[in-house]
Target: Pre-C2HC domain-containing protein
Amino acid sequence: MQFASRLTTSFEYYLKLKGVMDFETLKQLMVSDKLFQTSDRETAAHINVRQNENWFKPVELGKECDLHFTSREKALFNAEATVQKNEKNEQNTSFSQFQENFSYSDDVRGMRKPHTILVYPAKDSSEATSVEEILKNTIRPEANVKIREFRKVKNQGVAVSCDSVKDIQSIISRLDGDNSAKEKVSHRMPGKRHPSIIIYDLPNTITDQEVQEALRTYTEDGENLRTRFKLKGRKPDTSHWVMEAPHQHFLQLKRFRKIAVNWNMFQIKELFHVKRCQFCQAFGHTRQNCKYTVPNCGICADRHSTSYCRSNFQLCINCEESNRNSDTNHNIRHRAIDLSCPCYKKEIKAYKKTRDYL
Model:
């Protein structure tokens, strides 16, 4: 009796979640559920991604399956030609064109990568007003500039990030067109940063001086590297050190897999600052900034947390979305965290464009 009562309550809750209010909708839901249950794993994963938190009615579900089957057959017959075409296009893509192409995963999820301008007090200005106040007085609401992020940086400056180049250009034109603001502040676009290295599992008792001395023996230079931040290590009471290295030092350090610090060997390699959300699996943001309430599995692309997945089926949601929305032909049978993932490789390629390797 208790089991029957719980089953009834669960079914009523399920119908409420699906928005079933009448018998006709109930029939459609039952047919859709049956169609979904008979689908193969790849098709089911595709449908899960497409329907998001809603559900397809039988006719809509049939159309979506037809589109998926057509796309899959096209990919099978034209795989070789498409791969060659993509490789040729990547070789012929200029840097300006590359900058205009934002991440497909972020586009689908509305997380386009921002454009940034740096604003500092003018060198010969004695103005006591802060840069923030000058910007607020110059960039009025009627300018219709969509600012995504506003943060302080070194030397009393601020970094203003917008989703479009047009908004950045609007800020520049208004600063240059206002004689009062032009005398008080200067602006520039962010330059390329140095590549980063990461040293794994350094003891928390080790000092910055000891690490810098060890690095100097490998770079043959007296200059210290800039420590950007530290991450919690894999071993107890350890930390991963992330440091920026000018290209000469970076090339020297890249030759080594391990370095000696205080007579102990520690793994070292290049670190790519590529953000990937562990909740929805998209690139360009982290879990803390994710706008989604339902997770995407990093293993099978289903609508559950990766840590709960017990499936032997692997499907990359980023590559699947890229194939569907950007007409690519990526292999989708891998995890979203796979280092050989074509979408991840594209993010690495974009990241390297922002670093000074020369």
In short: The two ends are 74 Å apart (CA to CA). The chain is about 45% helix and 15% strand. The beta strands are 115-121, 147-153, 157-162, 185-188, 196-203, 226-232, 238-244, 258-261, 264-271. Residues 74-110 have pLDDT under 50 and may be disordered.
